[in-house]
Design the sequence.
């Protein structure tokens, strides 16, 4: 489907700040394509971000947009959605933003089942500050703050969201751009909290230090390790070693917070009117 | 509402009554003594008033949610105390920078750190002024009665909405938990102000315009979902709201941000002048301490001492003009009484210079300063 770029992008704000070979543009196009294919009302859609490379995306998107403080995008978005439930609220975040400084907001939004779509541009590194390890940096990988290799265990953000009670969690990569678009469409359409772990390459600050110098090598790394979710369940722990599942990992229905609160308002106002 | 309804209310309850009367539609908070009653009352009352209450996962998140809700068009508030106020500074600064109307209540307790959670203090007046990093102006109001907890909450919303700025309601534990009779104004008597909406076509809207709006330096604010599709960022931005590193634009915008408050001081700064006309000794006190100061002034007068009180109702911006008036009358002394080691005494001394002696009455162990303590300072100074 041809994409009417000017409708969705603030083309006057180009060129963007992302490095050559960065995967964030691919994730951004998947978001725009998903919004276009879903025919979302661009005047009723708000895009919120925190701090980091991913957080610059809303500046390029022609919607109501909010570039907040580090890690807090989901908390700001919670206020927007609760104050105006009719809005589609999409949060763009990064792995440092969502999993480290904003981890508490992520798990609580999942628990509340508030109708937000959170898309994590996960390049497993702090790119904006030039390459420190994040809670998503694989063990043994090099970063400026893990010069001897990453010693800690990384998070699996989809598992974290599922553990917190999230009703939708999915993962894809910049290598699987079509799948990523479809997953984002499904996430936006989901009534309730939806989380997308979008793996994106950072050749500049992750790849160069980890023998994946080019975007091509990094995307090949995604291709070699991604396993469709439907096959993942049948795999033994040994077979899963070094791999990760892509696709929709959980999708369930549960009461959504603004609906529940709306009913409470209605009830109390009726009682008051009697 | 029954006209001129007299009620027995707690200060924290009066804040909620005032907020709802001012049109509060969103409250996000986190439990913390001695402000918790504000969250509890909002949880109970807000949904019936068509608003939304949420208890967030932490203080940071509640300040963030308040900013988000306000940008979506809802009058928004949060409430906290010392430790929570520290945590809120990050997004309070964002509200300053993004020019997001909201009200932040801080019911002060003894600090630093966890301090004495159930005991009063006035140790956050300088944090209210300079808690967020970077050059900025702030508006903070300081109620000294339950009735004022109501009326200043309404006023805090009015200023927040009109000036597109966060407003701090700087209470203390005494006023927060005090119960006294209040006469609430009727709906007709209440002055409730709304934020100015843009009047330009959607494509021409500049959310941070230099010269627009009813109040100089305050650009009208659209709400998300109204079709203006505007951008708000904590980065220094131009009139269109998008980040800029251009020093000329940055300087202009930062100046406007500060001057929209500093150049409107006359409208913003309210004080109470009590027996000041012929006062030889002037007590400068605010919040709960001003109640003791009032008694001390009355007692001094009964003993033939010409004492008076200057009470800043608006703590920030600083009541410099009112103090200059005091200074012009060359009183024998100005006594600054506050429940801290001496914070507001600093700007008072700056205004008085060498010409008027400034005396301090301080208490910091979680007890209200008693009228006798102020009275004895008055007697010593005369």
Sequence:
């Amino acid at each position: 489907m041809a994409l009417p770029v000017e409708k969705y992008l603030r083309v006057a704000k180009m060129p963007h700040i992302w490095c050559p070979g960065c995967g964030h543009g691919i994730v951004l196009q998947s978001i725009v394509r998903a919004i276009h294919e879903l025919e979302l009302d661009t005047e009723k859609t708000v895009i919120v971000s925190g701090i980091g490379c991913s957080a610059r995306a809303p500046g390029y998107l022609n919607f109501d947009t909010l570039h907040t403080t580090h890690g807090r995008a989901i908390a700001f978005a919670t206020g927007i959605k609760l104050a105006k439930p009719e809005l589609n609220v999409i949060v763009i975040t990064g792995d440092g933003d969502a999993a480290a400084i904003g981890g508490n907001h992520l798990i609580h939004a999942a628990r509340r089942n508030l109708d937000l779509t959170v898309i994590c541009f996960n390049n497993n590194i702090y790119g904006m500050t030039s390459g420190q390890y994040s809670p998503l940096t694989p063990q043994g990988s090099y970063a400026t703050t893990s010069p001897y290799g990453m010693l800690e265990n990384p998070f699996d953000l989809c598992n974290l969201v599922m553990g917190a009670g999230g009703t939708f969690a999915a993962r894809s990569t910049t290598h699987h751009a079509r799948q990523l678009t479809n997953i984002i469409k499904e996430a936006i359409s989901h009534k309730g909290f939806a989380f997308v772990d979008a793996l994106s390459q950072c050749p500049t600050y992750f790849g160069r230090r980890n023998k994946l110098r080019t975007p091509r090598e990094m995307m090949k790394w995604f291709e070699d390790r991604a396993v469709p979710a439907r096959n993942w369940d049948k795999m033994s722990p040994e077979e899963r070693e070094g791999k990760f599942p892509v696709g929709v990992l959980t999708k369930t229905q549960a009461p959504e917070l603004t609906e529940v609160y709306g009913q409470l308002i209605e009830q109390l106002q009726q009682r008051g009117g009697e | 509402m029954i006209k001129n309804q007299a009620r027995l209310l707690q200060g924290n309850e009066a804040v909620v009554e005032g907020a709802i009367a001012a049109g509060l539609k969103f409250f996000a908070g986190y439990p913390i003594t001695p402000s918790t009653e504000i969250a509890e009352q909002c949880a109970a009352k807000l949904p019936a008033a068509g608003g939304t209450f949420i208890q967030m996962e932490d203080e940071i998140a509640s300040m963030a949610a308040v900013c988000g809700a306000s940008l979506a068009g809802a009058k928004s508030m949060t409430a906290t105390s010392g430790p929570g106020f520290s945590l809120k500074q990050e997004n309070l600064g964002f509200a300053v920078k993004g020019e997001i109307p909201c009200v932040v209540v801080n019911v002060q307790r003894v600090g630093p750190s966890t301090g004495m959670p159930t005991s009063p203090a006035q140790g956050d007046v300088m944090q209210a002024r300079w808690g967020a990093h970077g050059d900025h102006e702030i508006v903070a109001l300081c109620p000294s009665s339950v009735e004022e907890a109501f009326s200043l909450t309404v006023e805090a919303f009015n200023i927040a909405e009109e000036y597109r700025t966060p407003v701090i309601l700087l209470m203390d534990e005494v006023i927060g938990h005090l119960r006294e009779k209040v006469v609430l104004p009727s709906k007709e008597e209440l002055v409730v102000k709304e934020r100015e909406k843009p009047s330009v076509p959607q494509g021409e809207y500049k959310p941070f315009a230099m010269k627009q709006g009813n109040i100089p330096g305050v650009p009208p604010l659209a709400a998300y979902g109204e079709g203006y599709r505007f951008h708000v960022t904590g980065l220094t931005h131009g009139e269109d709201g998008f980040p800029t590193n251009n020093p000329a634009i940055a300087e202009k915008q930062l100046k406007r941000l500060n001057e929209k408050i500093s150049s409107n001081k006359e409208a913003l700064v309210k004080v109470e002048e009590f027996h000041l006309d012929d006062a030889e000794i002037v007590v400068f006190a605010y919040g709960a301490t001003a109640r003791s100061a009032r008694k001390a002034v009355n007692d001094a007068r009964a003993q033939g001492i010409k004492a008076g009180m200057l009470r800043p109702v608006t703590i920030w911006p600083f009541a410099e003009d009112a103090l200059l008036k005091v200074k012009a009358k060359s009183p024998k002394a100005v006594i600054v009484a506050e429940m801290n080691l001496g914070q507001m005494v600093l700007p008072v001394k700056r205004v008085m210079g060498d010409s008027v002696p400034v005396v301090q009455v301080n208490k910091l162990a979680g007890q209200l300063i008693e009228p006798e303590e102020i009275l004895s300072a008055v007697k010593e100074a005369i």
Summary: Residues 5-184 of chain B form a domain with the Rossmann fold fold (CATH 3.40.50.970). Chain B touches chain A through 44 residues (CB under 8 Å). The mean pLDDT of chain B is 96.
